[in-house]
Amino acid sequence: MGRRKGGIGIALVTGAMLVGVTACGGGxxxxxxxSDAKASGKPGASASPSPTKxxxxxxxxxxxxxxxxxxxxxxxxxxxxxxxxxxxxxxxTVEKHMKVSxxxxxxxAWHWFGDQRADWRPKTYWPSxxxxxxxxxxxxxxxxxxxxxxxxxxxTFTIGDDVRADVSVTGHTMKVTRNGKVVRTLSIxxxxxxxxxxxxxxxxxxxxxxxxMTSCSVGISCDKGSPNxxxxxxxxxxxxxxxxxxxxxxxxxxxxxxxxxRGSHGCVHLSMADAxxxxxxxxxxxPVTITGSPRAKAPxxxxxxDFNLGWDEWLAGSASGMGTTGTL
Length: 328
Fold this sequence. Notes:
Blueprint: E1 58-59, E2 61-65, E3 71-72, E4 78-82, H1 91-96, E5 98-102, E6 107-113, E7 117-122, E8 131-137, E9 148-149, E10 152-159, E11 163-168, E12 173-178, E13 181-187, E14 200-203, E15 206-214, E16 231-239, E17 246-249, E18 268-270, H2 272-281, E19 287-291, H3 311-316, E20 323-324, E21 326-327
Parallel strand pairs: 1-9, 3-10, 5-21, 11-19, 17-18
Antiparallel strand pairs: 2-4, 4-7, 5-8, 6-7, 6-20, 8-10, 11-12, 12-13, 14-19, 15-16, 16-17
């Protein structure tokens, strides 16, 4: 079970967890802008422009992630969402005005998902302990379509411990490591043949102690008589994709593992004790890698699945190419 929201950014000024009625996304091929039913939630607050009069209508940022002052995982991208489209001819200039600095040199690049979202990710995972800063110096910068930036934005964050979870769908296990050492191996169940789980690496979007999940909200079933119908509030929820993938506890599958082998609607199920333990281990940006499912890898913009693109594919979506972070 899981949910999908229309946008993954958290507001520039005031952060808000993604909340609302939700459900495990079934056999779909959605990206972050896909066709799943949208959950209700708090909208992101738009940035307020400075009094500077722009040359034309303002170009603003809807959100920058991660939030300033946070500690995130090694797979967390910098994700910038614009309120209006940025023309292809302007993207190289916009990228150059979004400077990424770090406490140690890190090679990486920007990549555009459509015309309103640009993510910067390192070529490989961030080193733990790295301090990172993004200076989006956009005042007076054109979006190529008559809009101009009217202010600058700065976010700083830290890369925390290297926590990873490797899920084997066929083995019904999830191995959790911290800084290269195995901490625990947990029993899991993943998606059924009808509703398989996404393969690939998905960085944690957020987590919540309880989430209200319904099958109707993602179009699985609105018929209360259907065996696929559910309307539940479930605990210890780790959010992986906007199309509805979670790691969590399910009352319909309380003792997951190869012995029960009950399939989900696309999520990864843990026992109650294991779900609570895992909830306490992970943070935004920690990579959860799923293998052995018959489904393809999650699209890179379905949440923060940026590392599902190979490096050459990533660079193909960049206007200015690979670079090394500035010195922080």
